[in-house]
Design a protein that fits this description.
Elements: E1 2-6, H1 13-22, E2 26-31, E3 49-53, H2 59-66, E4 71-74, H3 81-86, H4 88-103, E5 111-117, H5 141-153, E6 159-164, E7 166-168, H6 179-189, E8 192-195, E9 201-206, H7 207-219, H8 221-224, E10 227-231, E11 237-239, H9 240-248, E12 255-258, H10 275-278, H11 288-299
Parallel strand pairs: 1-2, 1-4, 2-3, 4-5, 5-6, 6-10, 7-9, 8-12
Antiparallel strand pairs: 9-11
Helix pairs in contact: 1-7, 4-5, 6-9, 6-11
Length: 310
């Protein structure tokens, strides 16, 4: 199996690429490597791994790599509502336009496995879980660009789209801004967090279970093709305050305050059903508590004070 992964040096890619190599697959990563960090250093010794520095918006770079691939995984994106709001041109050109251009070049036999976001659901119904049939009503530029890219993906006969819940867990290319990762970091280091609109609900999923979903989809593309699947923990449709309660089980003395003023810039609020993916035989391996314990151990190794004296 020959795989092209764009944005493969990111949070998910730094876990997915080694897993694919572990299966003996040939994996080429196209990335700008703008962080300048060796997040895939442990893969370089594998003869089946190759890295290409380039921008996936440049089809002159993408096309020759695409011709050699059986599977394409377009991970490259500006991820998250705040980042996309700050760079609207980059978000539109990378999250949507590059994917639309890519799909014009993909062959009929090639498999495309795409990560979108359940941000597309925006604000859900009061007591009705969002299924893959629920209306998509994104409330941010990030959500809109990913929804539009998914539309292009699902026109292809061998495509899969995974609507990811908020991802958590340790990875070589760590992200501290994701909700579980962020709140656990604050619990470990500050023992406190201030919540805006603490009743807003989200679903969560471990990064290793995201990898498992991608591999499962590629293995079963014949029966799963040309469809979208929610990927999340069915046990973890939680509000922000409920998430803090779970973290407090593992971090004694952690407290959270609900701010009387201010608002969350990301207005998502929904409960998600993951029944469709589970019905195909996929089950998550990492519950929320297991992930929080992992993060606590990982944060003993991390320092986030590059510009501090202590």
């Amino acid at each position: 199996m020959r795989v092209l992964v764009t944005g493969g040096a990111g949070y998910i890619g730094s876990m997915l690429v080694p897993a694919m190599l572990g299966r003996g697959w040939q994996v080429t990563v196209l990335d700008t490597f703008s962080a300048g960090e060796p997040f895939l250093a442990h893969s370089c010794a594998d003869p089946n791994f190759d890295a290409v520095r380039g921008d996936c918006r440049d089809m002159r770079v993408v096309e020759p790599l695409l011709k050699q691939a059986d599977v394409v995984v377009p991970l490259a994106a500006l991820v998250g509502a705040p980042l996309c709001a700050r760079d609207q041109i980059g978000a539109t050109s990378l999250n949507r336009d590059a994917v639309v251009d890519l799909m014009k070049l993909v062959g009929k036999s090639q498999i495309v496995a795409y990560p979108t976001t359940n941000s597309g659901y925006g604000v859900g119904e009061a007591n009705a879980p969002c299924t893959e049939e629920s209306p998509l009503r994104p409330v941010s530029l990030y959500g809109r660009t990913k929804v539009e890219a998914e539309e292009a993906i699902l026109t292809h006969g061998n495509s899969l789209s995974f609507r990811l819940a908020t991802v958590f867990g340790m990875a070589p290319r760590m992200r501290l801004d994701l909700l579980v990762n962020d709140f656990t970091w604050r619990a470990v280091n500050d023992r406190a967090v201030v919540l805006f609109e603490a009743h807003f609900r989200r679903n969560y999923i471990h990064v290793r279970d995201v990898v498992k979903a991608f591999l499962h989809g590629i293995d079963n593309v014949g029966s799963m093709r040309q469809q979208a699947y929610n990927v999340g923990l069915s046990e973890a449709n939680l509000s922000k305050s409920q998430l803090c309660e779970r973290i407090a089980r593992h971090v004694p003395g952690f407290v959270w305050l609900e701010a009387p003023v201010g608002e969350d810039p990301d207005k998502r609020d929904y409960v998600v059903s993951n029944d469709k993916l589970e019905a195909t035989g996929w089950v998550p391996d990492y519950g929320l508590d297991k992930g929080i314990i992992e993060l606590i151990k990982g944060y003993r190794m991390l320092r986030n004070g590059r510009f501090a004296n202590v």
